[in-house]
DDE endonuclease
Amino acid sequence: MTPPTTRTWSRRGHTPVIRVRGRSRRRLSVAALLCYKAGEPSRLVYRPCPDARPDGRKSFSWKDYRDLIQNAHHQLGGPIVLVWDNLNTHLTAGMRRYIADRDWLTVFQLPPYAPDLNPVETIWSILRRTSLANRAFANPDDLVTTVRKGLRQLQYRHDVLDGCLTGTGLRTPP
């Protein structure tokens, strides 16, 4: 809920101030897959996960990632080669069993501490610098709405998605 800051303009001697009513321990987790298929525009598949869940969990479980991958498989209609970072949830026994049972899913792990090789990290950076910058959120629902709107706008910017993939070397420029 704490807003990221970016550059802004104001009259000389009057520093812009963003008022935040109070600190909140609420948060929002978002998982995303940046996908491409030869001859088709790049796609962004995402799923937000607010921390107000019935089971009390505040982040994604391996089952949530499983559902996201399954959803992407249905949307893309073909086999998936997944390049993943080393998040502990990605490495659980349940996730390894799920991957082993799917012949349409191939997974490669990124080396540890290599965010520059993960194109989704660039998506988060763009989102923080555009939709979320210099904005104080009134409540967690406002944050969720803003993140969804920002990601939806990015879904239609295929040039930006291609740039994120090209920047990591996973795709060559068209």
Q: What stands out?
A: The longest helix spans residues 140-155. The chain has five helices and four strands.
